[in-house]
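Inputs:
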Amino acid sequence: MARALSPRRLLITTVAAWTVALIIFFPVLWMILTSFKTEASAVAMPPEFLSADWTLENYTEVWSRSDYPRFFWNSVVISVGSTLLGLLIAIPAAWAMAFVPGKKTKDLLMWMLSTKMMPAVAVMIPLYLLFQQLGLIDTKIGLVIALMLMNLPIIIWMLYTYFKEIPGEILEASRMDGATLWGEIIYVLTPMALPGIASTMLLNIILAWNEAFWTIVLTTTKAAPLSAFIASFSAPQGLFYAKLSAASAMAILPILILGWFSQKQLVRGLTFGAVK
Amino acid sequence: MSTHSSRLAARMMVAPSVVLLLIWMIVPLAMTLYYSFRFYRLLSPDRTNWVGFNNYLWFFNSPDFWLALFNTLALVGGVLFITVVLGTLIALLIDQPIKGQGFLRILVIAPFFVMPPVAASIWENLFMHPQNGLFAAVAQGFGAQPILFLEQYPMWSIIGIVSWEWLPFATLILLTALQSLSSEQLEAAEMDGASPFARFRYIILPHMTRAITVVILIQTIFLLGIFGEIFTTTQGGPGSASTTLPYMIFKQAIAAKDIGRAAAGGIIAVILANIVAYFLMRGLGRNLEN
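Outputs:
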């Protein structure tokens, strides 16, 4: 809807927009700045900016603490693992619903979405007890399964909206040319579906990485990812501000970068194709 | 043109997802319903028996429950109001032909990708902390007493933190909707002498109704279950001042180890979610029909 503005108004608008954007981003920026300060400089009053003692020590120290890399690795395994497993189960389902829709397909999709409406606390206890029985508490495989199921409706919906846009005529044409079902899937469908699958994957890695309910409830120490680690990290009276900031920065940076690449898909994905 | 065999194949392909989601949702829900009528405490495992509606009555008779219910609705309502109003204003601002729009979007979207415990921890320690926080420094600069955000205004503080996390989502979706609005219509209205407010009220706002509806629906789903932010900052306190329904249930299960009561709370949460969903769909459903 962009329209021409007079130079004066454009200047005012530009300054206002940049100010607002910087205010919104400021907490993240301040955390990153704090992570490069010494502990004393991080809690100095008044706050230090230009005069601060800059250091890289927090990063090396947090990373060399024996358990931080483990939390980081757990986050990687759990978010990527749950997403890949989810795609494995969701792709056939979304494919079938998009290309061989039945009378009940719409209802089925709505039902799947409605399972997201269920408050997690309502099913927390039985799931905790079930996981305990199965020996899955505080295991990576347990969290992979839990987060996969938590995000499965979103994965199916996203894939469905992408697959829906692949024209059926192309499939018919390839069938006329004598393509088998497998040939059709591998040579015709997959190349067209790949961008959709890729953005579904990206968004779900982000959601799983940032998940902070099941990760807190279902883990203690061994399989805890970064979200559970940071949640229970309490700095006694500002003693470890710089280290906490460094740990936080490392926890969000991979996702921040992935997120910046996928912001367009995010709108589509999280609104289930309702806003384009 | 779908043959009988391809229908069968399609069913086989959908089946795993349906079965898994049924197990994930229906089985635990049935178990929660069962536990909610039982006396079941992990600290006295030998005694288990039916107690009728006692677990539910405990909730309804607890003053904490009504506070938690109020807090839950205040959190959802407060965050929705702030993010939709500010999101609309910021989207209108960013949509102008300004320099570096792409980079601007990157700055604005950032908070959405910050995991809840980190977001809460940044605000708690670096900003709201009464001795070392940036807000305290600003207050001191003006010679004022630092505000005890999480101690005196815990709910307002949490609403603020959660709004910061969800503002980018609202802004991004409203901006996407705004960019699909044709400028010709607006220019025509401007030529006809429509004021900026009239243009917003009669052209822009109707165009954005669907996007606003989607923002409210999606955010409500996530906001009803807010947990990590409270766990990281106030742990529901001081006292029960910032305890929401999910957090109250969590406390019953983890701290009090009372499975029966926590289960009853879970069922109440399901009923609440259904009531909210019903009103949302009734009020907003019309906007979503193509």
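Remarks. DSSP finds 13 helices and two strands in chain B. The two ends of chain B are 27 Å apart (CA to CA).
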